[in-house]
Amino acid sequence: MNTEDYRQQYFIAARKLYHDARKVEWRILREKLKNELGDKLRDKSEDKPGDKPENKFAAKLKQAGYWVQTGNSGHGAKTYKSGSTLDVPYDLSNWRWITIKKGEEDALIVSLQAPDRDSNETKKNEPRNHHILEDRIAFIAPGTDGFDFCGKVTAEVTKFELPLSNKKANSLVNLVLKRLYESDDSLASSDAR
Fold it and tell me: Hey, which of 57, 126, 141, 158 would disulfide with 181, CB 3.0 to 4.6 Å?
């Protein structure tokens, strides 16, 4: 095997390992959220008496209709063509997210890559570059891509980064549930009564 063949095979193997590792992290986080909120496929009557979500907000969120979307969602297309603008399809399946819904509406996207833009605090007149912080977790409001029409980052970039230890994954789940709870006016107003 020549050097070029070896280099190509090495790169392809490394990309596959990275792909697989992100998929595992995504599945673990999605399962932890699903354990707290449930999913559309699980009948609520399957809950046993005494089954209580671990998080103090989870029961109220679940009762208010929040759930985790499962099935064939939460990752990009394997043959992405950007509306036919790409001559050769791109494998976008490593782009991963978890959608939390309230009823049939998207409530929050938990993204496994965070949009970012240079702050330009030190270089005022230079262009502000857009970035994607791979493996950094972000919360993205439904109907947006994490940027506003001027390119300002609207996503909430967290301190959490893949891979997540079990302790950090649980902390992230608690943060997601707290964020959902605090952003839902109907739940916050019911507590005030």
Answer: 57
In a domain, 133, yes or no: yes
For the chain, what is the domain count? Answer: 1
Give the Cα separation of 10 and 181 in Å (integer).
Answer: 46
Given a contact cutoff of 8 angstroms between Cβ atoms, the answer to whether 164 and 31 are in contact is no
Q: What is the DSSP letter of 42?
A: S
pLDDT tens, per residue, the chain with 193 residues: 899 999 999 999 999 999 999 999 999 999 999 999 988 655 454 554 445 555 788 989 999 999 999 888 899 999 999 999 999 999 999 999 999 999 999 899 999 999 887 776 666 667 677 889 999 999 988 776 666 655 566 789 999 999 999 999 999 999 999 999 998 888 866 665 5
Per-residue tokens: 102: 């309230």
